[in-house]
Amino acid sequence: MQTQIKACRRCQEAGYIPCAQPIVSGRIADQVFVIGQAPGHRSVANNKPWSGPAGLLLQRWLEQAGFPAGYLYEHAYLSSLTHCDPGKNPRGNGDRKPSRQETELCRPFLDAELRLVQPRVVLLVGTMAIETFFGKTRLEDLIGTYTERDGTLFLPLPHPSGVSRWLNDLQHQQLLQQALQLLAQWRIAYEL
Questions:
Q1: Which residues pair with 77 in a beta bridge?
Q2: Domains contained in the chain, number
Q3: What does the pLDDT look like over 71-109, one tens digit per residue?
Q4: Domain housing 124
Q5: What SS3 state is found at 135?
Q6: Which CATH number characterizes residue 82's domain?
Q7: Which residues contact 90 (CB under 8 A, 6 or more apart)?
Q8: Pairing relation of β-strands 121-125 and 152-157?
Q9: What is the crossing angle of helices 53-64 and 170-189, to 10°?
Q10: Which of 87-91, 157-161, 164-168 has the highest mean pLDDT?
Q11: What is the mean pLDDT of residues 111-140?
């Protein structure tokens, strides 16, 4: 599947991005599956998902939940709604959100990855990933909660981006801590 993803040029051929450079990382035996919005320019430059500051913070969150240093890259399957960098936000603050059409072009790959890996835990990182699986919602209503579907635990997390201001609120930080406590319990219970 990863070979097919890396060979994909659908968004480039449709004119959504100038150059397709799909990124994927993980192993079929990984029990934690991370779904983000899309890789950023640092990820493309390093050919590694979550290569920027957001990845460092996500790894720190995992460590707060008791996972070892390096877990994100060594033991988690890293995917996203689109596997290519959609480019910079036209307003200049962060990355452009992929369009519905782009995510629809890439969705068969994400669905196939989930079927093949069959993870125990899926971390939905950021509003786009959360809304893809839960529908339109407010982060306050889902962070700190989870749902189980066919034996897989789906845990919403806020995006660890410096552009996001959601975590500036103390109550939101407490919701994140609730989510990390759940993750810590699962790490022990399911030997993640």
A1: 33
A2: 1
A3: 999 999 999 999 999 998 888 777 899 999 999 999 999
A4: 2-189
A5: coil
A6: 3.40.470.10
A7: 96
A8: parallel
A9: 60
A10: 157-161
A11: 97
